[in-house]
Amino acid sequence: MNEQAVFLPVLEALYDAVMVTDSNGVIILANQATLDSFSLTREQLIGKTPSQLIAEGFYLNSSITKAIETRDTVTEIIHFPNGARRLSTSVPMFNAEGDLSMVITNSRAEDILNEFSKQLAYEQGLHEKYQEIAAYLTDIRTDKVIYCSNQMKDIMSICNIISGADSTVMLLGESGVGKEVIAHHIHNNSPRRKNAFIPINCAAISKELFESELFGYAPHAFTGASSKGKNGLIKLAHNGTLFLDEVAELPLDMQTKLLRFLSTKMFIPVGSNKPEEVDVRIITATNQDLLQMTREKTFRTDLYYRLNVIPIRIPPLRERIEDIKVLSEAFLATYNQKYKKAILFAEQEMELLKAYPWPGNVRELKNIIERTVVMCQQENVGDFLQASLFGTNGMDVLNYGEGFHIRFDLPLKDALESFENYYINAVLEENHGALNEAAKVLDIHRTTLYRKKNPEPKARLSTQDKGPGKNDEQACVGTDDV
């Protein structure tokens, strides 16, 4: 992954002016706050050295030059021709051989420092922050796979080994752990990377359409079919990678047809009698116990062993707590940039995130971070996270919005059914009644969502208004259902 693509969004999320120079003092990266402090564009600043900026009268002294000379952290007041002063800290970074590789410099206007003296603890921790960011440039070499835990390092090491082979891979793990991201990584580091990566959500395609979607169809193969026919997803993946997500959801008759294709790498489009051959690599993913499903006769044993060549289990987020911080900071940087905010998490916020069990894994963490950035100001981040993750007092109540309050005198079945009904309605309302989009958020099949959609929960948890979903009939119909 391009270093700047990782680094620059993080820098833009910071309030301070931050720039990065190489070992010779040449500026290679700078955030918008730095550009504003010099009144220069990025094109005008990148490539210059501190000596050039001093000679051109942009400032009178620099901490960068001293950091390069001393190979040590330097903090000093930087003076500008207009009388302004900034507290600047330059931190030299070294590679594995001990050679100077870059200098990271942050600065903040003196008057702002005086005004926000309560942030002193944050200022003192900046060195560690930049060291962690610089570590990203070294350790995170994979596209969109963000991690620092030993478990994920082992998994990514395996992925890097198998990327060069064509072996079938089975990714195992709970919903939201990042199975598709890992599949993308394997493809993007394989000899097939210049060809298509075709994902298929096996739970999202109806049984009636699955064969034509997978194998395509010949011209006029059935009523309503295109006169030109249609290539199936398998053919689109020729010379690339076919990713079968939620493979456990395949009906048994479709499992048989998939097994036949996997055995021969040949298929016959619907309405045709001419076999076609393709060259694809297969990666599958599931959150189910396929071996148990074979015992229950709901998944074909021969298909299971055909797919289970290289199984990789991706642990849930609660088993790799070390990843929560780096993931949170990456998501913060992304959403701060997207929504033009500058939300930061202090140590107490990070501890809240680490204490939560994350049943929805990385997907849930990402959603929580986005919600926090959108809805919060810096001063109420801690309270908002506490309420979002643990309820208003952190232990004995879940209070979600105006319409949902849990009592603790209900049978578990009734409480779960009531929350499920409320949550489904809330997601439908958030997606303007579009069943397909809501099903993606809920990570269930569209028909499952339709079946679960009930007009009222059996047990009401509050006498308040029903909240999201009170217009049930409207919520069932969306633009994608026409």
Short characterization:
The chain is of the alpha/beta class.
Describe this entry's structure for a reader.
It is a single chain. By secondary structure, this protein is α/β, with parallel strands linked by helices. It has four domains: 137 residues, PAS domain (Beta-Lactamase), CATH 3.30.450.20; 164 residues, Rossmann fold, CATH 3.40.50.300; 80 residues, Orthogonal Bundle (Helicase, Ruva Protein, domain 3); 78 residues, no CATH class. It is built from 23 helices and 16 strands. The strands form five sheets. The protein has a five-stranded antiparallel sheet, with helices on both faces. The protein has a five-stranded parallel sheet with strand order 7-10-13-6-14. β11 and β12 form a beta hairpin. α20 packs across α21. It is elongated, with a radius of gyration of 27 Å. The protein starts with a helix and ends in a 7-residue tail after the last helix.
How are the secondary structure elements laid out?
Elements: H1 3-12, E1 17-22, E2 27-30, H2 32-38, H3 42-45, H4 50-55, H5 63-70, E3 74-79, E4 85-94, E5 100-109, H6 110-115, H7 120-124, H8 126-139, H9 150-162, E6 169-172, H10 179-188, E7 197-201, H11 207-215, E8 216-217, E9 230-231, H12 233-236, E10 241-245, H13 252-264, E11 266-267, E12 276-277, E13 281-286, H14 290-295, H15 301-307, E14 310-313, H16 322-339, H17 347-355, H18 361-375, H19 381-390, E15 399-400, E16 404-405, H20 412-430, H21 435-442, H22 446-452, H23 472-475
Parallel strand pairs: 6-13, 6-14, 7-10, 10-13
Antiparallel strand pairs: 1-2, 1-5, 3-4, 4-5, 8-9, 11-12, 15-16
Helix pairs in contact: 1-8, 1-16, 16-18, 17-19, 20-21, 21-22
